[in-house]
Specification:
- The structure is a single chain.
- By secondary structure, the protein is of the alpha/beta class.
- It has 2 domains: about 1-85, NAD(P)-binding Rossmann-like Domain (Rossmann fold, 3-Layer(aba) Sandwich), CATH 3.40.50; about 90-210, 3 Solenoid (UDP N-Acetylglucosamine Acyltransferase, domain 1).
- About 15% of the residues lie in helices and about 30% in strands.
- The chain contains 3 helices and 24 strands.
- The chain has helices at about 10-20, 50-60, 70-85; strands at about 1-5, 25-30, 40, 45-50, 65, 90-95, 100, 105, 110, 115, 120-125, 130, 135, 140, 145, 150-155, 160, 165, 170, 175-180, 185, 190, 200, 205-210.
- About 40% of the residues are buried.
- The mean pLDDT is about 95.
Length: about 220
């Protein structure tokens, strides 16, 4: 059984640790909240922060690291750093996800149970897909996207990098592009293309505001 560490000791990290334990020994959590460091959560110790994780991985090249956090920008940057340093950032595809064998999946992609992904979909690196997500055929998902619980994605849509799709949102077939760094609110129905950085809400979804371009500074 391989060993891993999980970045993020909050509720989402705890859920992933639970799923991962069927395939991994969980060596510990990494978290940047100093009040959590040293604590034990569900039997797993919080070992240190992101700087500590780099030293730990250098000293233990057999360790894999998973970064199941909902902040697309932070997750993407951390995963890029871990990869540039040569650390192991595998994908995790739950055994109860239904994914056609033609689907292309990149590095560090996480897919939870009950998700269905139709043929000829392509999912690039560092994307997170929660439970019960349905993704239709010929869809392209770029790096660092996040799909919340129960989202429905139509066919042949290009979802650009770091897009965030909220709980139970629907992207209708006929939409061609979801812009980079956009956010689709929970329960929204998208019937037209979404601009970059747009926050969309409603049914049909409309632009509420535009969010700032993510800052590239991290460490």
């Amino acid at each position: 059984m391989r060993k891993c560490i999980v970045y993020g000791a909050g509720t989402y990290g705890q859920i992933y640790a639970k799923y991962l334990e069927d395939e991994y020994f969980i060596h510990g959590y990494i978290d940047d909240n100093p009040t959590l460091i040293g604590q034990t959560i569900n039997g797993i110790k919080v070992l240190g922060n992101r700087i500590y994780s780099i030293e730990l991985l250098k000293a233990n090249p057999d360790l894999d690291i998973f970064v199941p956090i909902g902040d697309n920008n932070l997750r993407h940057k951390l995963m890029c750093i871990y990869n540039e340093l040569g650390f192991n950032t595998p994908s995790f595809i739950h055994k109860n996800a239904n994914i056609d064998n033609s689907v292309e999946i990149g590095n560090g992609v996480y897919v939870l149970p009950g998700t269905n992904i139709m043929p000829f979909t392509k999912i690039l690196d560092y994307t997170m897909i929660s439970m019960g997500v349905n993704i239709a055929h010929h869809t392209l998902i770029e790096e660092g996207c996040f799909f919340s619980l129960g989202t429905n994605i139509g066919a042949s849509i290009n979802i650009r990098h770091k897009a965030y799709i909220g709980i139970a949102a629907t992207l209708m077939t006929g939409v061609k592009e979801i812009g980079a760094n956009s956010l689709i609110g929970a329960g929204s129905t998208v019937i037209r293309d979404v601009p970059e950085n747009a926050v969309m809400i409603g049914s049909p979804a409309r632009v509420l505001r535009y969010q700032p371009i993510p800052d590239d500074d991290i460490l």
